[in-house]
Amino acid sequence: MTSNAACWRRPAPALVIATISLTACATGGSDPASAVCPPVVAYDQPVQERAAAELEAMPEDAVLVGMMADYAVMRAQARVCEAG
Question: Where does the secretion signal sit in this chain (predicted)?
Fold first, then answer.
């Protein structure tokens, strides 16, 4: 049986210092405004009304009803991202 004791050793100090130093050179920030926002597709009123009617015609336990609710949340998040 092979030993995995080497996996539990502390990393060499030089490796830790190099890793910390390289993270200081990262160009991407953690600022949410610098994130790439997905586009929000615009639907005209007739298409929205047709989609609502089709959705209402489905049984309440239809999988697509839940998926559309998730899609609505993602669209709202994308709008906030674009505005930010």
Answer: 1-26
